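The aim of this short unit is practical: by the end, you should be able to scan a pair of folded records and say something sensible about each. We start with the first protein, listed as its amino acid sequence and then its structure tokens.
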Amino acid sequence: MKQQFKPKQIAQICAALALLNPALFTFAQNSPTTVIVTGSRFEENLNQVPANVNIITREEIENSSSNTIPQVLSQIGGLRVSGLNSSSLNLDASVDMGGFGPTGNSTTAVLVDGIRINPIDSGNVDWSTIPIDSIERIEILQGGASVQYGNGAVGGVINIITNGGKKNINQVSASYGTWGTSINNAIFRNTVEKTTFQISANTSNTNGWRPNTAANAYSIDAKIFQDLGGGDRAYIDVYYGYTNSKLASPVLGLVGSGNPLSVSPEDAGNNYTTNNLGFRQGLTKSMGENYIFEVDTSYNNKTSFYYTPQADYFVSLDPSDIYSYGYAGSPMNNKLQGWQLAISPRVKANFAGIGTTIIGYDFSKANQAGSSTYSPLSQSIILANQKDYYYYNNLTHDSQNATQINNSVYVIQKIPLSKVFEASGGFRRQVQQASTTSTSVYAANGTVNNSQQFAANAGDIALNANYLPGQHVYIKWNQSFRFPNVDEYWAFGTNPDGAYELVFNGILQPQTTQTYEIGGNWSIWKSKITSSIFKSMTQNEISYNPSTGANYNSIYQTNRGGILLDVATNITSSFNVGIGGKYQKSYYANGPYSGNPIPIVPDTLLNARANYLITSRWSVGGVVNYVSNQYYDSAPNYYSATPVMPSYVVGDIFTSYKFMGIEGRLTIKNVGNAQYSTYGTGMGRFSTYSYYPSEPRSVFASVKYNFN
């Protein structure tokens, strides 16, 4: 792998940033009155939360080199972000907070204003529906939080807060960069008496740096926030997002080999389109001095289309071709139509001498229907070869339909033991009913129906010591869980006639994870320090085997453990630096694969960022991320200690100048022009080494105008 930065240069790069690129604004300082909502779903002091929580402020986002939310999470939050289509728009980015590798995005709960936005399948969060200018702050909670949020809150929680204060913000921005990339944002937020109106929008387009990687995205979000007095408030938020992207094939070989600009002809023209719309609403109402009632409601409707123009690439009309003749191609048009409805009422009660009690109920119902149709040529082949070539029932399309209904109740209790110590604990019981229907051109047994009900429990116990203003330490145990995604009900396998095709896999059991954690948060010496040490054990882990195409519950336990540290310090009012990192091990704990690492999980993540205000108008800054080597994605029975995906260092630098209400900025991303990849496949029954190359160096020029 070619790369101008080498891992051994990290210290030199970080030092250079600290000396040359200090900060424009101060990093977020956790004062004794810092208030968050992610810890318990109610507002509370950060130092009362027994968890590792970091806050990314609006100012930090504005004064960084980040153009998208995934870039914010990686460059400021220090999280592990990966993707296949590495364009500047990060439309398919996934976040792995818990070291779960290929299923990391399914074990990270992503919220907007406390409301879950994760899809019910294994797809990625639709980041494009959240205009980056609408963000007031991002709260990142590391570790399990299924007591508060239920399914999927195993590795951590990302809560994107768009409910801002009454400060008026009216600004527009435009960026243009390499490969014809343009990113435009606007936000208009104004308060009239006790009513705040906010509308934000984004348009993004890129030609892509590789063939067949062009993409565009558009989103708009409109919100009304009403202050009802006495701490009572309500809001309604309506949004719409559209994306259209192409996906190039991987490069065959080890990372760094081959031609990253090459694209397999059978993948030429592949196109993926989504339409995503919905609403979110929330109400907070005081009921006397000691009770607070809150309720959230949300609805989402998403339609996705995947078009494969070369679906018949391997079709043969030659009878002498014994390998391909008589077989149809792959589906040409694939459609997914899904919706989710959720409601979450909860109440918080403060009892003198006893503490705080939170009781809540979560209900959600979701459905996703999928259909796959074949080209006219393949349809004629299917109809002409009934039974002889594994085609049945004169079907010319495949279809799947799945419904999930979730009901759960939870309780959280906090008991003050003294002025310093507070004990807390919680419990959640979630029951999921899942039902499916599927049929296929290969299904000799026609339509297959199935239904299943599973339940999972979450719990936590913690002791928090808030011994000084802005300083606390905690010790904690928790159990979290995740249910299978709807697409994990199906897999590639052998159908009743022996053909290797998409078949019903069965509804899998939920996985459970127990985590032991000790950590703390300290605001001292003009610095914010957050750190924790953790150890977790997972049973029934929901996994995918690339060599067999099967989704399954692993019968072997997997363990994870490590340490996190983040330090942000204000050296002076114009000079600020931050460093952070995570060291972790993710591995099989028993069975024939005992000691083998989980693929696509780097052991070490390091992050350094810094800004410097040269004058009142001119500033410079930068960020550097280091990711250690990791294992290619492969089945556990194909594990090999070598080769591995190599480590890499990626750095961005920028400079900006302000004049009155106008700000101009020049950003160089991947300034060292590192050639790297965040995802690659290893050897397997149907695969060989391949990787998706990430974007090389790019340059962006931006201008922002503030109307206030």
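Turning to the second protein, read its sequence before its tokens, just as you did above.
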Amino acid sequence: MTFHPDDLPDLSGRVYIVTGGTSGIGYYTAARLAQHGARVYICARSDTKGRKTIEGIQSLYRNAKLDMLVMDHENLGTVASAAKEFTSKETALHGLVNNAGIMATPYKMTQDGYEAQFQTNHIAHWLFTSHLVPIMLKTSKTAPTGTVRITNLTSGGYMMAPKAGVNFDDTSLIKSSTIARYGQSKLANILHAKILHQQYGPGSASAKAGQGEIWTSSIHPGIVNTGLDDKATEAPLVMKVLTHCVDSFGGRWPADKGAWTSVFCAASPQMKKEDSGAYYERIAKVVKPGAMARDLNLAEKLDVWTRQEMESKRLL
């Protein structure tokens, strides 16, 4: 499929949220949506980062309508608070792009008691999404069919997840490598999009009952110059050599172009109803992922596990 962000229609009146919107793919996803008239909330770890991002995007698109939500994915209380702040300000949400992520970082447990990659990449997004689903379902009842969407950024690195996919006995994977921990978290992103499709997508009980319909997707953007791998201090040498080789042959894309599939899945009318729940690669190409990423039983188990964890911490 041929797609360019310039192909987007006028998005005036629509509202979007982009996590990890202060740099890389998230920055340009927010910018492209705002370019076409949408109001975009950028999630940032600090007020300073958020304001700097807004100024940067408005220097590209003078009339960009931007706001921010301050939250730290390694502090789940701030994630829940940010979602509640949004719903206190807005009455509609057309698109949520769960973009924030970390990769191959040193082993670390957060203050909430989870391994940092698993919390940042999966748990925080699951929690944030859960708080926002009600307003999205409400929005979908009056919006044109298929315009309310949730997009999860993942990675082909999901294939490095443990053999079982997700180790529910020890999601921290303390005895495993950092790349296995990353793989588990990225697999979780795909499974999350899959279960959301089952719950709220076309043909779901929610859609059939007229309670709302949300289209979902998960995206592997390819190797993009986001700076994420520069922070991957624990990444195996082979990964760094591979990335260098890709760079040498011009295979790494700039962050703006790397965001095109995110923009497509968030807002393009070219997305098809039957592709809700699908796994995408660049640019806007539906691809069949590996067996673990298609395992609905695993997706359901992960959803139940995450919900129980969040309920036990009274975050829902």
